[in-house]
Amino acid sequence: MKISWITSDPTPAVVYYGTSPGDNTFSANGTTNVYNYLTYRSGQLHDVIIGPLNPNTVYYYRCGLNSSPELTFKTPPSQFPIKFSIVGDLGQTEWTISTLQHIAKSNYDVFLLPGDLSYADSDQPAWDTFGQLVQSLASQRPWMVTQGNHEIEKIPLLHPKKFTSYNARWVMPYEESGSSSNLYYSFEVTGVHVIMLGSYSVFEPGSDQYQWLQADLEKVDRKRTPWVFVLIHAPWYNSNEAHQQEYESIGMKKAMEDLLYRARVDAIFAGHVHAYERFARVYKDQANECGPVHITIGDGGNREGLASRFIDPQPAISAFREASFGHGQLLVVNATHAVWTWHRNDDDVAVASDEIWLKSLVSVSACS
After folding, report:
1. pLDDT of 187-234, one tens digit each?
2. What's this model's pTM, rounded to 2 decimal places?
3. Torsion-angle region of residue 252: left (phi > 0), alpha (psi -120 to 50) or beta?
4. 146 forms bridges with which residues in the sheet?
5. CA–CA dist 172, 3 (Å, integer)
6. Of 239, 232, 233, 230, which Cα lies nearest the Cα of 323?
7. Which residues participate in catalysis according to the annotation?
8. Position 334 confidence tier, pLDDT thresholds 50, 70, 90
9. What top-level class would CATH report for the domain 77-367?
10. Which of 35, 200, 356, 364 is most buried by its number of CB atoms within 10 A?
11. What is the rounded CA–CA span in Å between residue 74 and residue 87?
């Protein structure tokens, strides 16, 4: 597990941890960095990798100093079932707070965020307030994220470098997965192989991301990880009027859809469009029992509001769509079956507004 935190003043990059309150049996050291953005200079960014850790275990930990507050987190289980909470385009609004309150009640193991985190949009202190907003959840469970368009933060001439803040603050395990970029990586947990792609990193055939994806898919062992899920930011399938015909969507789909189809990816989750939509299993714009289920879950609560206008008539491959804030839960029950549910913020978290059972494609004889 990587523990990341920020301090105003220089502090040792060390984490003390154990399996009971006040237990400092173990410790690990890491690195400290800062970054500059125009006239802004960040606080001290600390990253410490701790472990090896036991599965399905609550750990107690302190960051930097023994006098710092004691926090807890729980590691994912080593065997099924495992529950993912998934939502994109969070932002920092009252809607965001409602979404986070629902997620906190969902008893999830791992949080997946398909891009557009803070909506800082070059206002760097907003990255700090976003961290404070999500800390109560992000300190307790693994948060795995990929980038969206609001993370680019490039200003021609003044700050020509992309993703400065995102890459400094949200360091994902890209090197561990053989990637050369923090913008795309993969990881495995409890029988699931998760691929996080970069919609705003070069993705055409021959690019570093394309070649990395090819190599990563070839290494997947479906006996060890019978499930494969992919996260992107810009959806490849979308019947909302918002964000139609953007190159990050249609260009990436053209470049990579064949790779994911041949690899029998089970589901692809996207953000960007501020609404919820679930498609049937699909490939090349047609229903296909061996294609992935595409789900747009960009309804976390950003300041831009909902994308409330859908294209009529509803395409045959679009199974469910609604412009409401909410979040998704993916419960992987075993090696062959999982259940996906979508929950509106307006409803109690126990209420599922959309639900579908999924069967892993490697367990479907016609697809394997």
Report:
1. 999 999 999 999 999 999 999 999 999 999 999 999 999 999 999 999
2. 0.97
3. alpha
4. 114
5. 11
6. 239
7. 243
8. very high
9. alpha beta
10. 200
11. 20
